[in-house]
Amino acid sequence: MSKQTRAFDNKKLVGELFTLTYGALVSQLIKDYEKDEEVNKQLDKMGYNIGIRLVEDFMARSNMGKCQDFRETADVLAKMAFKMYLNITPTIANWSPANDEFSLMLDNNPLVEFVELPEDRSKLNYSNVLCGAVRGALEMLQLEVEAWFPRDSLKGDNVTELRIKFIRKLTDALPAGED
Amino acid sequence: MQEDATNVLFELLHDELISYVYSNDIDMKSKQISILESHGFRIGQSLAEQLTKDSSRFKDELEIMKFVCRDFWSAMYQKQVDNLRTNHQGVYVLQDNCFKLLKRISSGKQYLEFAPRFLAIPCGFVRGALANLGINSIVTAEVISMPAVKFQIMIQRV
Amino acid sequence: MAVCIGVIAKENYPLYIRCAPNVENEVNFHFTVHTSLDVIEEKVASLGKSTSISTTDLREFYLGQLYPSEDYRIYGYVTNTKVKFVIVVEAANTQLRDNEVRSMFRRLHNAYTDVICNPFHVPGDKIKSKSFDSVASSMIVPERKKENPLVI
Questions:
Q1: Domain B2-155 belongs to what topology?
Q2: How high is the ipTM of this complex?
């Protein structure tokens, strides 16, 4: 079985496998939960679990030290983490005057590559796993944040915007984890 | 070689799907396996559609099997199947000596009992891909010794 | 430009049929698409047999023109997953070349693949995807009468 047939673009295919697996996960949650809000919550929770596990891998790959401020965190998140794991580089935008809140603009979201949201799913935040993952990962780095999607191209917005808000610095104690 | 980062993310997601399905109705082990298998089926179906759209027309069953062992396997696991055997009566055995989704849990015997939940989705992958290519089958997997796995495909002829 | 585009499932029932907006005999087109299936099956079966001839075009998805009719030309395409695409063109439309038909099929096939990968789509169900519809619609002859502008 050593004969090579065609050379596939492996990175793209792993990406597709990820996209399709995520689709399977969402479809399972939709079967199990009546309300879109519940599904969103579950997706966020799963993202959180992924985020807290991903941090270690990220640290090993990036050799990053601690970020100096929230602006640097935004930079690392967009230009390194999103690039590394999702192969996209979101644009950082809409900083709040206090520099404690910013948006990642995703002009290309691999999670929704094939997705067309049914009309009766208008409250579903399909990509909510990303909110959880960002929240989980930053929490492991002693940053408590909130993350949500104010705009989503799946719902007809012209851009997908992931908003991240700094809440507080955590002390070195272990994070409390999910309730 | 360091594993591709997108792969790490896939594996974490895959684990989340498994542990989510297992967090529901604890008493129904066989149901959980079949839920996971059906997700694998759906994904396999989609990927077969994707991966065969630029190839030429398959002329027979063996060509389809070779596609599964080479292209499909490479797309899923970045390696090909190590061995393909058939009895020429509709049974094919695919052997992967280092099955990727078991590699991470293979470091101890105590994890062997977890193998079935990690093999349900991959069995579905194969069954879904074959079904979409017009072959109905039953796919089962057996751990030879961690992380080597044998997938047995029994073609269902109508 | 086509007057009718059809997508037929493995099991030979229609997944999608779209006709030009000004055709009067839409039922006829459904019938045409359906009859073309037999020709497709025949063609594919004959290709399967002639394994000794190893020319590449026998392994192609594009089957070319299926059968001639007085008013229309009917083209066929079959994927490895046994889904059939049919494009019906007016016989009077002589500018359309083989390569263009081929590329129309490619575009339909790509769009179809995306439909299958949509987690909300149930394989085997009729195609309801808006993006597939817009790809197919772009290949359909537009309404000829322009008196009534489209209101969106």
A1: Muramoyl-pentapeptide Carboxypeptidase; domain 2 (3.30.1380)
A2: 0.91
